[in-house]
Give the backbone structure.
Amino acid sequence: MSLRLFVIYCALIGGLCSYVGWAMGLSITAEGFLRAAFKGMFAGTLIGAGLSLLDSIWIGRSITFTFCHTLIAAIFAGMGGFLGGIIGEFLFSIHKSLIIAGWLFTGLLIGIAISTFEILISFSNSQAKSFAISKALKCMAGGAMGGLLGGGIFYSVLLLWVARFGPGIFWTPAAIGFSVLGICIGLFIGLAQVLIKEAWVRVENGRWQGKELILAKAVSVIGRKEGCEIALFGDRNLAPEHACIRKRENGFYLADLDSPDGTYLNKKRMKEETLLQSDDIIQAGATRLKFLEKTKSRN
């Protein structure tokens, strides 16, 4: 999956999950704060689960990691949506325009929920902790921006729709607002992870051709073992931990991890750790990867 597709899928999944969550909230007979809270909870749960599932699939995580990541994100995003719904309804009761602030808060909480599981498992690893915190900040920023924009559009639609069409059932200002909120949260969470990237690799051949992975950690391992940052399952010529890319102050370095078949850089077998340049071709096993760096990329 390319980075562009990842962002598009984030937006689509966010919008769909948010709309379904809103529709589920129609079954709540209570009015006011409780109904708003449950609508927020349903939407938050589904958005958190959907985006976390997509994130795990994109990175290539194991089934166990994917399940735990999705479950934890769904729980925390649901809690965030519940709390955000109450706050939003309270602010809405003061002045309708304040609903924007409530949705901003909801988006922020859903954003941090996406990376909650990674934060929880990172306490024993300083490198993983740094990555998890960085990702959490990006997701929080993306969620907050999505909530702000989604809330603003909801408020605008609310003013225009009711004045012209009156209330409806399945396509009301709230339905539009929730859908836009989900789209914006998904879009900005995806963009926050993609736009701030420094370097990434793109698979040039084989089963995973076109897949792009951001080099966010200090060390990104290339291999077919579950848990590798650049996991390339299905390549029999690839060692479980074949090579790695290390992030240093002056750039990214490629190193072979004593793999049986070796690692090749621009068709030459590596003998020592080497500084990578944008557009370099890495061959590990039968898989070719193109290294791309934001400040130097010509693509």
About this structure: The chain has a mean pLDDT of 83. The chain has seven helices and eleven strands. The radius of gyration is 22 Å.
